[in-house]
Amino acid sequence: MNARTPRPPVTDRWLVVQPHDTVQVRDGRSFDAGTGGIAHSVRPWPSTIAGALTAALGGEDLQSVRGPVLVRETGDGWRPYFPAPKDLHTDPARNDVWRMCLEGGPVAEPGARSDGGAPASATDLHCTEEDGTGGLRLLTLPSGAEGKERTEPCDALLPGRTLHDYLHGDLVVSGGVAPYEELDAVDDPVVPEPRTGIGLDPRTRTVRNGMLYRTTHMRLEQGWAFAAHVTPKPEQQRQVDIGPPDPVQFGGLARMADVDPAPGTDWPRAPARFPGGRVLLYVATPALWPRGWRPDTPPGAELVSAVVGDPLAVASASPKHNGEDFWSKRVLAWAVPPGSIYLLRFPGEEEAAVWAAEHHARALGPPARERMDTAGFGVVLTGVWS
Question: Which of 82, 171, 341, 376 suits a disulfide with 165, CB 3.0-4.6 Å?
Fold first, then answer.
């Protein structure tokens, strides 16, 4: 059965957030000004984008925000870029790119048995129930990459059309190799700028003795911005279409940004067919799930394998300006980074296609905390794997 990926409602819009200057977003870890103190800064979280867009549209919450996505200005709009999937590796010179494959070969069809009589998906003895990976298969580099020095995960950004080919199985086959130039990849345009600051007395606003600290600001290269896919409420529709008239606060230190429509931006399309019921999940925005690194497995499906990057420290709090509300609702959590992938197997192609069509370019729930999914966390894209 061929299942068409539903088009988003016509009311959905992409908006672009263009910072006026550097962006300063803390990752939420404890920090005190003083000798050797370091404030850890990160690129804007989904909740940072959602907060800016909410303020730009009159302070009323949108139905949902999906982003951020890095976008690059073109002659007629904006082109989206996404972190390279974690199963793509390259050599230091970036001559070739390899795609990881399942250790021990392809997954057997449903109901098949391995030589030892156990289900084929449970033959990997490296996985344990204690760490939540019981029964999972390992993804390993193909043999052709073993002789390469310091082969490492690709840390570049891929344009939407390249990620589209990856999701459709047309970029690099599992266990295969391709020229790096075929990725049309670019380096991260978010450039860190180290800064030195000094602590102030909050009452007198005078310098406090010995309170030097270091922090990092993030600056976007010329022609780049952040974008998000928003679903507004009906009363917000006109304002979304024309763009907010005034800049809004974006991140800390009263930094400002413009918000405008983002023509040309879209998610890569999902495949229509999923042979063997096999669905690849690509994590497009940082994900916060109740079980940590592992999302809930869809009913009837099986999680076969995963490649997850280093966790990201994410802080969230109440948007209220009341200090008591802020500290009582402040939460620090560890998020699954964008680019992580999960391999799912459904009982059949039809079940896979229906589930993928419902979840492509949507937040995969349930979220770790209420409203995290509507604030941009955990957006996934669906593809095929072999």
Answer: 171
